[in-house]
Every structure is written in C-alpha cells, then in structure tokens.
Amino acid sequence: MEGIFRHYLAIYRPLITRLNQLLEPYGLTYSLWQVIFYIEREGPSTLVEISSYYGVEKPSITRRVHRLEERELIEQIPGKDRRVKVIRLTGRGVAVYRECREKISLLEGEIMKGMAREEQELLHRLLPEIRKNLMRKGGAGDEA
Amino acid sequence: MEGIFRHYLAIYRPLITRLNQLLEPYGLTYSLWQVIFYIEREGPSTLVEISSYYGVEKPSITRRVHRLEERELIEQIPGKDRRVKVIRLTGRGVAVYRECREKISLLEGEIMKGMAREEQELLHRLLPEIRKNLMRKGGAGDEA
DNA sequence: CTTTTTAGTTACTCATATTAACTATTAACT
DNA sequence: AGTTAATAGTTAATATGAGTAACTAAAAAG
Prior knowledge:
Chain A is built from six helices and two strands; from the N terminus they run H-H-H-H-E-E-H-H. By secondary structure, chain A is mainly alpha-helical. Chain A has a single domain (4-111), classed as Winged helix-like DNA-binding domain superfamily/Winged helix DNA-binding domain (Arc Repressor Mutant, subunit A), CATH 1.10.10.10. In chain A, helix 2 packs across helix 4 and helix 3 (47-54) packs across helix 4.
C-alpha cells in the first residue's frame, strides 16, 4: 500500500488556499482560525493548552493570540494565577466564529460530495487513527 | 459531517516532521522530495508540470529545482523548445530516490498499521477524490 | 525562604510560499 | 513575413508561519 502520503499531501495546498480565501474577508488565516475554533470548543483557554493541542510551539501561539487581540476577536480574562493568560472570544469573536464555521461546513460538504455516508464516516475514523500512529514512535511534536 | 478539515490538518505537521527527519540524511526536505518523486513517476518533466501538479507557484519550483541541481540529483535535458527546461533524475538521483522510497514505504506501513486492507484501499481512493473536488470550483492553484 | 517549575514573551533564524515584474522564446494572426 | 500574444522560467521583494534559545514573572515544592 504505497503512496498514501502522496495522496495526502496533494490535498494540503489546495485546501489551505481555499480555507484562506474563505477566511480572508474576516481578516483571518487558517492558523488564526484554529485558535478561535479551539476556544469556542473548549471555552476560555490558556496559550499552553492551545499550543499543546495543536503541537505548535508556544511562541507561535503567542503571535497568533496577539494578532487576534489586535483584531478584537479574543480578549484576556483576568484570573488569580497571574502567570496564566486565559483568553476567550469577544462578542465579535463569537459572531465571526459562527459565520466562518458555517462557510467552512459548506465547503466541507462540497468537498465530500459524491462520497457515500459510510465512506465519510470511515474518513472521520481513519484520519485520527493515522495521526495517532504518526505520533506514537517518531515523536513528531505533540507534547509541547 | 463536520470537522473533516480539522482531522485532516491535524496530521500535517507531525507527518512533515517525520518525513523531514527521514529525508535529512540525504540532504532533502519533503518539498525537494516531491520534485524527485514526480520526475521519477512521470519521467522527464518541466517546471510548469511540477508546479501545476502540486498547486505551487512557479518561483517555488524554480528554487526547488535549483537546489536539486546543486545537489546533483537532477539535471536538465536539452530539447528543441528553448523556453522549456526539461529535467530528469541523475544516477545519484535515482539511487537516492530508491533509498528514500523504501524508507518512506516503511513509514507508510507503520502509519497504516491496524487498518483493515479495505480501509487502506478506501483511503487510497478517497483522498484523490477529495483533491479533485477541492480543485473543481474554487480554483485553488491547479491551473498555473 | 530558597529552588524549581510553569506560562508567556522576545529576538533571531529558517523554510517555504506568494506576487509582480522581467527575459527569452515560441505560437498565432493578419 | 512581421507584429502580437502566449508560455516557460527567473529574479526580487515580501509574507506567513514555525522553531530554538534566552529571558521575565509568578507560583509551587522543598
């Protein structure tokens, strides 16, 4: 069973391009979207949480967060541990989330068009499995 | 069926990291590997062909090709259309291809471990289909 | 209370991409 | 044939996004 990486990677750039086109009107890129998405899902979160979830180093998340703060899509919640920066979506952030989420879902539907339901479900199951296998031995940046 | 992009993208960084680790002993990165791979598969090719296959702009491919030429893994074939730069693998290029191909196949096997044969086959079928859907309307860098 | 750990930031560098403008060459059209 | 348009590739400038190392501030552990 050869060539799975090739098939996988052949999707990446077109996908990112489409997503960035979709997000551009909101002043977002996919990497910023990831942060919004995470916060919306998990509730108020810290940089370390986001960082370790996405397997990305802290400085990268710092930068994403700063950009989202500038755009007033997220804001800091003061808490008692003063090391920690807990962030949440602003009202605007929530609105932007909703709009983008909807458009992304539409795009997802478009991309899965022509696939049987079971095929789609299998994809949903297999992709995380691949990720898991990928992280198991070689140690490719999950635990930050 | 939401969240397919998220599942897909969660694989990208760990995968690239693994591939780059694997290729590093050969002075390659995955982006250079893509070019070698394409040429090996398709035979002598032009920059535009590679560029449009991967959905990457021409200048990016120019750079990749230059780097591979420096490393003497590919070389130019003179042809009659003097605008076109047709490249092929050198002897060293072929040797490096073989070694890397083998290692990558092993990694692919490792990553697919625990999947039924039919599941693997389905992946091989569905990923290209996704790519096709992705390129169809929005125009995400196929026709360069 | 000193030491260690944790969260986040800053500074620097790397990998890779994009756009725009350009050259050279071939193809198309009158 | 001779002009115009299209094509292949390159160069230059810039953007995105990541990683590492070194740092500050604050809390936890001892």
